[in-house]
Amino acid sequence: MGFNPYFHDADLVEREMNANSQAMEVADSVDRVYFYGAGSSSPELCEVIAEGLRRVFANALVHVGHDLDGAAYSTYTGEPAVTCILGTGSNSCMFDGTTVTEEVPALAYILGDEGSGSWFGKRLLSSFLYHKLPAAIHDDFLEQYGLDKLSITKRVYQEPNANVFLASFMTFLGRHKSDPFVQDWLDEGFKAFLDVHVACFEGASTMPIHFVGSVAYHFQDALKKACADRGYRVGNIIKKPIDGLAQYHVEFILKSE
Questions:
Q1: Structure confidence by residue, pLDDT tens digits, 23-58
Q2: Which fold has domain 80-239?
Q3: Is 37 exposed, middle or buried (0-12, 13-18, 19+ CB in 10 A)?
Q4: Could you tell me which residues are beta bridge partners of residue 101?
């Protein structure tokens, strides 16, 4: 599971890590732990996660940082770049090789998250309930999920993790991404993201724009088209940042310590 200090405390981190047999096999021999996650955006919030990790990795120096930092490090190729997260939610930063900076905040799925899974999920569900979907897509949605207005509004307004529920429909949209109706949505959503979260960085048009996340990865053809239309140069598009993140720490962090 992911650890977010807004929702999880040090006790939960410790408990979940102790339940991970692979982690426990090496816990005593680990001397560095680097964690990057959503919500770890201030020293106080980072300390919540760090405390739980220190209890498990007793012999390690523990560093906790924001998920944007992790995304920036994982895509770094040696030149300044804008790095974007497009998954359940959306966000962006600029990394010059030394400092990660943000220009606009992430406003989450109600006020923001342009171009994210939750953004497209909202569009799909509202169009379904408003009877705005093409007949073939409407019928496939009904057969696949059997949802009605009551069940949808209950999940969105009364139950937790509405953003995850909304984003879960990206698999369905993936099946229909060749339909012009869905292609228009993808183009609109990705351009809305670029206009808010990329255009805000001075010089963005002269540097690579990297992307991390399942939405960016699985819908990269539409994303690349939106970037080309806006005059942006696409850099790396990766589904999960762990490989690049590990490589960055080996090449740049551990050597400097």
A1: 999 999 999 999 998 888 889 999 999 999 999 999
A2: Nucleotidyltransferase; domain 5 (3.30.420)
A3: buried
A4: 94
